[in-house]
Specification:
This protein is mostly helical and 372 residues long. The chain folds into 2 domains: 143 residues, no CATH class; 168 residues, hpI Integrase, Chain A, CATH 1.10.443. The chain contains 16 helices and 5 strands. Helix 1 packs antiparallel against helix 2. The longest helix is centred in the N-terminal third of the chain and has 22 residues. The termini are far apart.
Length: 372
């Protein structure tokens, strides 16, 4: 069925394309509908046909017809943000709809207007193929599955990553310091800054400043993204929203974490790297560190799996943002920070447009009651 994503733009070819896929979908539906138990593929096929109708003048019944280019985008969104979850689960239930919702709202590459657009399209599927009305009906349950991460779990993850990333290193060099600590530093900074994964990954070296003995600042801006011209940011314009551009001031109060950060920064400085997390060519030996290239997402893809293996809970890397907010609010309530941060300041620090988002989605109030 993924072949339907190959939408031709030429008028005559597009008509052939529609007829070909109508024929295929109708044939499969006829076969599936004869079965006693309805398969999820029926819902997916019917939804695909509905989208094709939106681009077909003969099936639009006077409604506005979308362009082939728009149809291609609608189909891509449906496959990426809805159909893949349904196929994986083999059912359309509330858990699947939660996953669909989370796939949209927690995607760091989607700006808020894009999120709303994607939700509208997914809602079209939900209204036609399920007993649910819209994704909004299940929003209240979404954040329950996402857990915060505790400091001792971060320490266990650090040990695991150090074991994995140092087993082939024999000498203490600036290159080896980068190889040894890069993924560990990435985790530490996510924990202490509350930054989004791609915000942190795209930072230039000059975006991070040492202010004091254990105090740092991290600038979240478009400079690193512009330098690299990342493909995933080209359509979205760079950052998730206007609130995303900010300066994060943070302290690292763990001596070991601080020591790792300083060793890593020394290695980066000696290699004269442009990016805080430079790209690494690890397929060939000797391993090469790029001075002017950025670390790829694939290099950190398995961090979430390692983390969930330690916690035995649903703790993707995005959970570190939840942990940051929850810990900050705990410190505020305990009076452990010298200058009490307001919720508005915390919302700005985390890069949210409003404090309501911070409190409703990121502060785990039930956990806070146990911690205080």
């Amino acid at each position: 069925l993924k072949g339907v994503l190959q939408v031709p733009y030429e008028k005559r070819e597009f008509k052939k394309y529609l007829n070909r896929w109508y024929k295929y979908i109708n044939k499969v539906l006829e076969k599936e509908n004869k079965k006693e138990e309805k398969s999820v593929i029926v819902s997916i096929l019917e939804s695909t046909r509905l989208l094709l109708h939106k681009a077909d003048k003969e099936e639009s019944y006077g409604k506005k017809v979308i362009l082939p280019k728009t149809l291609k985008e609608y189909l891509r969104i449906s496959f990426q943000y809805a159909f893949k979850y349904i196929i994986a689960e083999g059912d359309i239930n509330e858990d699947v709809l939660k996953n669909i919702e989370m796939g949209i709202i927690y995607n760091d590459n989607l700006r808020l207007p894009t999120q709303r657009k994607y939700k509208r399209l997914v809602n079209l599927f939900i209204k036609n193929q399920t007993t649910f009305n819209t994704l909004n009906k299940i929003q209240s349950a979404i954040h329950i599955n996402r857990s915060i991460i505790f400091k001792n779990e971060i320490d266990i993850l650090i040990e695991r990553l150090l074991d994995l990333d140092t087993k082939d290193l024999r000498r203490k060099t600036s290159s080896n310091a980068i190889l040894m600590y890069q993924r560990v530093v990435f985790i530490i900074l996510l924990y202490y800054t509350g930054a989004r994964k791609n915000e942190l990954r795209t930072r230039l070296v000059k975006d991070m400043t040492v202010i004091g003995k254990n105090t740092f600042s991290l600038d979240i801006n478009l400079k690193g993204i512009g330098e690299q011209k990342l493909v995933e940011y080209n359509k979205g314009g760079g950052l998730k929203s206007t609130a995303t551009k900010r300066r994060i001031r943070f302290q690292i109060d763990d001596d070991r974490h601080l020591k790792i950060i300083k060793r890593y920064l020394q290695g980066i400085e000696k290699k004269k790297c442009k990016f805080l997390f430079p790209g690494i060519q690890s397929k060939n030996k000797p391993i090469k560190i790029y001075q002017k290239k950025l670390m790829t997402e694939s290099y950190i893809d398995d961090l979430g799996k390692h983390l969930q293996g330690i916690t035995n809970r649903y703790t993707p890397l995005h959970s570190l943002r939840h942990s940051y907010v929850t810990n900050k609010i705990k410190y505020m309530l305990d009076g452990e920070i010298n200058r009490v941060e307001t919720i508005f300041e915390l919302s700005n620090q985390i890069g949210h447009g409003s404090p309501e988002v911070t409190i409703e989605w990121y502060a785990h109030l039930g956990i806070l009651k146990l911690m205080i």
